[in-house]
Design a protein that fits this description.
Layout lengths: L8 H23 L4 H8 L3 H5 L2 H17 L1 E4 L7 H12 L15 E5 L3 E8 L5 E8 L1 E3 L5 E4 H5 L3 H4 L3 H11 L17 H20 L14 H14 L1 H7 L1 H11 L3 H4 L6
Parallel strand pairs: 1-2, 2-6
Antiparallel strand pairs: 3-4, 5-6
Helix pairs in contact: 2-5, 4-5, 8-10, 10-11, 11-12
The chain binds zinc ion.
The site of zinc ion has 4 residues, from helix 8 and helix 10.
Length: about 280
């Protein structure tokens, strides 16, 4: 009995397209702004994105790739923004707009990344017309029509499974909030959503959170949410995508409003966030 190394014609015919497919995958991976290895690395930084069904993960990857191609990334204070940093920021930035579209971010063009916290000098006028000047140390900033500004150190050490915070989602939520004017926790709602319902549910939840905080009771939502309605919306947006169970259980009517606005149902994807 003899064996032959020569493949049978039928087998050769099947191997050729497989080889082509492999070549195509390699070529696509090299030209894609989010090649396979980089995508796997950054996907591990989001429980929600990692738990999405495979077709949704592929769509999120495409969206994040387009984000990387269309936004500029600038390192401040001598920081070099690596591909991994860009990819991680892009992934998290695209989670809130996953079912809205990249055009929701058309108003701004760049992401500025500082190595750590950064200092800003703010000036504002109060209701009595008195101008106040203050110096603030921040880890994130969202400028109306300007860039989002981030501390890489804050992102690097962030473990959303522990803190349920996500700086990039927070700043991006502010960007969505100001699409229809001031930052006030009232983003542009979709057709069929009722502005009165949104305001009523959010104000009731905000008042309840503030009352608890005043009574010295800290719940599962980060206390920074009690700063003002804009921060309430931004912090709740972080929690919506990192620990959706907290909002679904503590503020169920707000959860439903957010699910309609973001067109996502993270509690369905991540039901088992630990308490
Ligand atoms: Zn904020």
């Amino acid at each position: 009995m003899t064996t032959s190394r020569k493949p049978a014609p039928r087998r050769a015919a099947r191997v050729f397209p497989d080889g082509l497919k492999k070549l195509f995958r390699r070529w696509r991976s090299r030209r894609h702004p989010l090649p396979d290895g980089l995508w796997s690395t950054v996907l591990r930084t989001s429980s929600y994105a990692g738990a999405l069904p495979k077709p949704d993960r592929a769509r999120l990857r495409e969206l994040a790739g387009r984000f990387m191609e269309t936004k500029s990334f600038e390192g401040a204070r001598g920081l070099t923004v690596s591909e991994t940093m860009r990819a991680r920021i892009a992934l998290h930035a695209c989670i809130p707009i996953f079912n809205l579209g990249l055009e929701y971010y058309d108003d701004w063009a760049s992401v500025v990344v500082y190595p750590g916290d950064f200092r800003v000098h703010d000036e504002y006028m109060d209701e009595l017309g008195v101008v106040h000047r203050e110096t603030l140390d921040l880890c994130g900033l969202s400028q109306t029509r300007g860039p989002i500004v981030l501390s890489w150190e804050a992102i690097r050490v962030e473990d959303e499974t522990v803190t349920h915070r996500n700086l990039v989602i927070h700043e991006c939520a502010h960007k969505l909030d100001v699409l229809n004017g001031n930052a006030n926790g009232f983003p542009p709602l979709h057709a069929g959503m009722k502005p009165g319902e949104w305001s009523r549910e959010f104000h009731a939840a905000y008042d309840r959170l503030c009352s608890s905080l005043r009574a010295g009771v800290s719940g599962r939502i980060d206390a920074y949410a009690g700063s003002d309605p804009a921060e309430f919306f931004a912090v709740l947006s972080e929690t919506f995508f990192t620990a959706p169970r907290f909002i679904a259980e503590d503020f169920p009517t707000v959860y439903r409003q957010m699910a309609r606005f973001y067109r996502q149902d993270p509690f369905h994807i991540l039901p088992a966030t630990p308490a």
